[in-house]
Amino acid sequence: MIEARAWLQALKPYDPHELPWRVKLDANENPHPFPAPVLAEMLATLSTGLFQRYPDATASQLRVELAAYCGVEADQILLGNGSDEILHLVCQAYVGPGRQAVYGGPSFAMYAINTLATGGTPVEVPLDEEFNLELAPLLEQAQQPATGAVFICTPNNPTGNLVGRDEIIQVLERTEALVVVDEAYYEFCGQTVVDLLPRYPQLLILRTFSKAFGLAGLRVGYALGNRELIRELHKVRQPYNLNAFSQLAALTALRHRELFVQQIETILKDKEELSRELAEIAGVKKVWPSAANFLLVEFDRPAQAVAAALAERGILVRFLGHPRLTNCLRITVGTMEENRLLMANVKEVLAK
C-alpha cells in the first residue's frame, strides 16, 4: 500500500480527549442552556426542503446579517465548518510545502496541525514570561521570504491574555505574509481589529459561533477580510461546506444575540469569582488573568496528574502538554454549580 505524504509522518491527529464526564470544562464551550426562544424559532422554521436540497453554497443570508453585526460587507465574509476549516483553507492557499507559518506559543494547537497537514513548517516563537508576544523574534520570522502566514490569537488560547492593538499593527506593517488574527473569544472581551481591514489587505480575522453563541456542536466559523483575499480562499473551499441546519441555527442565534449577551455577562461575572476562589486553594500557585471564558491555572506540581484525578471524578479540564505548561491546566468557566463542584474536587485532589 502506498504511504501517506512524507510530511504527515511528523503529524499527530488532534486529540479531543473524550472521556465520560459529569462536568465538562475542557473545551471552552458555553455551559448555559441554549436559549429556549432561539431553539423554538429554529424548530418552527424547519422544513423538509432544508434536508432534501443542498444548502446555500455561500450562506448568503447569514453573510448579510453577519456583515451588519461585524461592520463589513457581505462579500468580505467566508463561512466555514468551524474556524478550524478556515485555518486549513488558509494553510492550503498560503502555506504548504516550502513555506512556514509563524505564531507565538503556547497558542492554539490547530495552527501547527493545519500547517503540518498541508506540508508547511510551523515556527513557534516563544511567548515571554508573562505569555505576551516577543515582538522582535516574531517579526524576524514574519519577515522571512518563506513565511506564508502569521497567526495571532487574541485573547490567546490557552493563556487568556490579549495581544495589544499596536503590536498587531507592527506585524501588519512589517510583513508581506498573511496575518490571521484569531478573535474566537471576541464576544467575551470586545477587542477587535475589524476597523483595520481597509488599511491592510493581508489581514484576515477569524471568529466562531462555537464559544459565546453556544453552537460548538454545529461547527460554524467565519472569516473577515478584503474581497480579493476572500476570493482566493473560496478557490480551496469545498462546495456546500456549511450545512443548511447550521446556517439556520447561526442565523437564528445572531438574530437573538441579546439572549447570549446575558449569558456572556454571567460567564464573565462567574469567571472573576472562580479566579479568586481557585487562587485561595492550597496547591494553586497562580491563576493567570484572562480576557476569555477560561482560566489558565498554575499548580505547585505536575498538572497532568491533577487533570487525571479530576477526570476520575467525572470532571474534565484541559492539560495542554506544552513544555511551558507542565504545571498548568486550562479550565473553562462553567455554571455556578459546575464551578463549585470543580473547586470542591480540586481542594480534595490537591490535599492528597
From TrEMBL:
Query: PROSITE patterns this protein is in?
Result: AA_TRANSFER_CLASS_2
Task: Give cofactor(s), names only.
Answer: pyridoxal 5'-phosphate
Provide one Gene Ontology biological process annotation.
L-histidine biosynthetic process
Query: Which residues are recorded as modified (N6-(pyridoxal phosphate)lysine)?
Result: 211
Residues annotated as domain Aminotransferase class I/classII large: 23-342
GO MF annotations for this entry? histidinol-phosphate transaminase activity; pyridoxal phosphate binding
Q: What EC number(s) are associated with this protein in UniProt?
A: 2.6.1.9
Pfam families tied to this protein: Aminotran_1_2
Q: Which UniProt keywords apply?
A: Amino-acid biosynthesis, Aminotransferase, Histidine biosynthesis, Pyridoxal phosphate, Transferase
Q: Which residues form a coiled coil?
A: none
Query: What pathway does this protein act in?
Result: Amino-acid biosynthesis; L-histidine biosynthesis; L-histidine from 5-phospho-alpha-D-ribose 1-diphosphate: step 7/9
Its recorded reaction(s) are: L-histidinol phosphate + 2-oxoglutarate = 3-(imidazol-4-yl)-2-oxopropyl phosphate + L-glutamate
Highest taxon in the source lineage: Bacteria
Stored InterPro entries? Aminotrans_II_pyridoxalP_BS, Aminotransferase_I/II_large, HisP_aminotrans, HistidinolP_aminotransfase, PyrdxlP-dep_Trfase, PyrdxlP-dep_Trfase_major, PyrdxlP-dep_Trfase_small
Q: Does the keyword Amino-acid biosynthesis apply?
A: yes
Which family, according to the similarity comment? Answer: Belongs to the class-II pyridoxal-phosphate-dependent aminotransferase family. Histidinol-phosphate aminotransferase subfamily.
Q: What NCBIfam families does the entry give?
A: hisC (TIGR01141)
Query: What's the subunit arrangement here?
Result: Homodimer.
Q: Output this protein's name.
A: Histidinol-phosphate aminotransferase
- Native organism taxonomy: Bacteria, Bacillati, Bacillota, Clostridia, Eubacteriales
